Structures are given as C-alpha cells and as structure tokens.
Amino acid sequence: MPYSDQPTVAPSGVAIPLLGFGTWQLEAEDARRMVHEALRIGYRHIDTAWIYKNEKAVGDGIADAVAEGIVAREEIFVTTKIWVEHFHRDALLRQAEESAISLGLTPDLLLLHWPKPIPSLEETISALNEAQEQGFTKHIGLSNFPSALFRQAAALSTAPLVTNQVEYHPYLSQKTLIETARELGSSITAWSPLAQGRIADDAVIGAIAKVHGKTNGQVVLRWIIQQGVIAIPRTARESRAAENFDIFDFELSADEMARIHALARPDGRIGDWLDEAFQWDQDA
Ligand SMILES: NC(=O)c1ccc[n+]([C@@H]2O[C@H](COP(=O)([O-])OP(=O)(O)OC[C@H]3O[C@@H](n4cnc5c(N)ncnc54)[C@H](OP(=O)(O)O)[C@@H]3O)[C@@H](O)[C@H]2O)c1
C-alpha cells in the first residue's frame, strides 16, 4: 500500500502523507543518518530544499533505506524547493535538474521557496510548469505564499499547485490561508510545526498531553494533522523521530483542539522573510 497505512491528504488527487520529516539545518552526515532512520521508523514523506545544501545526503539516506529493503522508492513522497535566486526560467530549469540529480530521484513535489516580485509570477509559474513537463518533478507547489499571491499563482498555473508550505504551529494562526487552500483544492504544509521546540514547556499543551499519556510534541503534531494540514517536524535525534511519529493512536477532542488554537498570538511568527512588496494574511 502506498505510504503504508498512514493518513494522507489528496489535493487534486495527489496523495501526500500528513506527517513528514523535515531536514533544514541537518548537515550531510546527520541528514543521511536521520532520513534513513525516519524511513525505518515509518515516515513516508521527506522534506528538503536546494538551499539546505543536503539534497545529496537526503538522497543517499533514501537510497540506503531502499537498498536495505526498508521501503520502495514509490512509497516515499519527496519534496524539494527552488531557491529564490533561481526564479528566472533558465535558472529554475537548471536547478530543477540539479536537485533531481543530487537527490538521485525525481522528486514528488517541487516548490517555489519564497515569493518574490522579480521576475514576474507569470514567468516563474510558467517555468515551474515547464520543470514538471520536462520530468524534473512529479508535482509542483508553493512555499510562503500569502493568500492573495496563492490565488494569483493558482490562476496562472496549468498544473495544480498541490501545497503551500508555510510556518504554522500553535502560536501562529493560519486560519485564512487554510481556508484559501481548501477553496483552491490545494493543501497547507506546516513548517516549524513544533515552533522550533518552543512548545515543549507550554503548560496548556502539557495538560492536554498528560490526559493522553503523550508528549507536548506529539499533541501539537496531532493537532496539526487532525486539521488535515501536513506537518514536517525536524529532529537530529533518533528517539525524537520515533516520538514524533507516534501520533496515530489517539485523537484530540474539539475542546482540546480549540484550547490549542487559542494559544495563537499576534507576535507568534518565528521566521519572517517575506518581501516587503507582499503582506501576510491579516490573522497571521
Ligand atoms: N519552506 C520554508 O521556508 C521552511 C522554513 C523552515 C522550515 N522548513 C521545513 O520545516 C521543517 C521543520 O521546521 P523547523 O526545523 O524549523 O522546526 P521544528 O520542526 O518546529 O522544530 C525543530 C526543533 O525542535 C526540536 N524538537 C524536535 N522534536 C521535538 C519534540 N518532540 N519535542 C521538543 N522539541 C523537539 C529539535 O531539536 P532536536 O534536533 O534536538 O530534537 C529542533 O531543534 C524544516 O526542517 C524544513 O524541512 C521550511
């Protein structure tokens, strides 16, 4: 069965495992070790990017797991991203090819990493479509696009934009963007789902975790996937990779979900790198 029997979302019919493994800041040796370990544990979705400088190591970790018979290539959903310096057509196609070569496979999903005003969205979206047509990726999508730009990009694209990967955790509301994704038939992927570890000491989350016999991290990841949003936590520790995967055997009540939603605050954003030509959604 593709992606084992873990839950998926299927924007435009493209099945994506709701829980993935993030690799930002994992240097080559850790990236190869942790990707292999994540696949051994059961993760079937791996997230990387050209700018993380670890695509080759991520590809090696996947190849190790495939060679050991842990998993088949077709059972893994692999995402990478086009860096902002490569948004002109020729540069985008060059990087798309380079990323596929570094990974040693055709990624399932290729995202535009952050929106930028130059070159035009028309040129970049058209080039992203071309990358897919030329076989450098199976599917395409976005990252860090506010709703207005998300809509423009979707209107310009021939192929469906299957996700918009954005910062999302209990301290940052993404209500508007989640509704926009739903309207567009796309999906949201939550980066920094654990607020880079800040959720570990949260008393509200801790109280809910105690009721379920789970950790704060597990409760937060469950809260995200229970909304139909994809979560891609990162860790350099094998024990935490296993902890973060162990979220499929419990459910949060509507009241518990609401208590975590209520933790969102106006200054909750951690990673702000949006070009000043654009604006985040107002609830974000
Ligand atoms: N598209 C974008 O612009 C963008 C931006 C940022 C990130 N991302 C993607 O999203 C992924 C996740 O985001 P992130 O790496 O920023 O942050 P994150 O997953 O929210 O947090 C990672 C941090 O939390 C710690 N941690 C892991 N599991 C934990 C747990 N159960 N309890 C407490 N702490 C825990 C890790 O430490 P240890 O390693 O010590 O366990 C690490 O320091 C990235 O790796 C990357 O793939 C994308």
From TrEMBL:
Q: Which keywords annotate this record?
A: NADP, Oxidoreductase
Note the coiled coil stretches, chain numbering: none
Domain of life assignment: Bacteria
GO MF annotations in UniProt: oxidoreductase activity
Q: Which residues form the NADP-dependent oxidoreductase domain?
A: 19-263
Tell me which InterPro entries the record gives.
AKR (IPR020471), Aldo/ket_reductase_CS (IPR018170), NAD(P)_OxRdtase_dom_sf (IPR036812), NADP_OxRdtase_dom (IPR023210)
E.C. numbers: 1.1.1.346
Q: What class of enzyme is it?
A: oxidoreductase
The family classification in the record reads: Belongs to the aldo/keto reductase family.
Protein name per its UniProtKB record? 2,5-diketo-D-gluconate reductase A
Q: Tell me which species this is from.
A: Brevundimonas faecalis
